């Protein structure tokens, strides 16, 4: 079977892009054209609007992104109807030949993690191609995901150094030997990744490393030469394209960079009365924002000054 890291890199080369767009639908940011028939007392009605919003995003970005990344919380909040919207979104993204990264951040004891792994890396309706995993319960929490990914020719991104401001409270704890917790975890990830590399010298076992920590990423890259990084925090969270060169190898591979709010709600910055934005206008603004982000990232990863 093809290592999924190679699938991800091949798709990146085909589209000349390392951009991932997050599908984080928040109803309070949707314009009137998507809400005119919504019954706010009905989760089914709201979930229908979410799916229509996602379709607009996918249509706008499909030619310019390597993957879409549904954030599970925005669907789970609406119960079974929200999950149905997620299922339909994943199916629609597949029809556009997009890679799906479920941003689920799951992790539990062994038997439960195995069940989560089947849900997100199997062949079910909410299964994607990759999933984010919380490894801080230990190896019996994340190994079921790695095993399922290997069995099903898919991939995982283990949380390592996340983009949120308080990540240091746990991830930067100093161990008895003076090392930081997340570097110890990086060493453990590399033990697995170096044994599962594909033709591009990367493993299907990736790591989440926030765009807001470029200095830390430099050392993490040295420790994890065989893991593709999923890089959140670019754009609205403060991560700047010019700081991201350390995430990539000399060929411009080794990372995919996620942006959510800065792209999917870009129409909110284009007019004073964004609530009146039409669906066609939304698609145009989102398309322009995706192209701009892709070009910014390409300029950095292919810069002759790297």
UniProtKB/TrEMBL annotation:
Q: Does the keyword Transcription apply?
A: no
InterPro entries, per database record: OMPdecase_type-2 (IPR011995), OMPdeCOase_dom (IPR001754)
The similarity comment for this entry is: Belongs to the OMP decarboxylase family. Type 2 subfamily.
Alphabetically ordered keywords of this record = Decarboxylase, Lyase, Pyrimidine biosynthesis
Q: Which organism is it from?
A: Paenibacillus solanacearum
Return one Gene Ontology term, BP aspect. 'de novo' pyrimidine nucleobase biosynthetic process
* Molecular function in Gene Ontology: orotidine-5'-phosphate decarboxylase activity
- Which catalysed reactions does the entry list for this protein? orotidine 5'-phosphate + H(+) = UMP + CO2
Give the superkingdom in one word. Bacteria
Q: Where is the Orotidine 5'-phosphate decarboxylase domain?
A: 18-274
Q: What protein name applies here?
A: Orotidine 5'-phosphate decarboxylase
Q: Which Pfam families match?
A: OMPdecase
Q: In which pathway does it act?
A: Pyrimidine metabolism; UMP biosynthesis via de novo pathway; UMP from orotate: step 2/2
Q: What is this enzyme's EC?
A: 4.1.1.23
Q: What is the lineage of its organism?
A: Bacteria, Bacillati, Bacillota, Bacilli, Bacillales
Keyword Lyase applies:
yes
Name the enzyme's class: lyase
Q: Enumerate the active-site residues.
A: 105
Q: Which gene encodes it?
A: pyrF_2
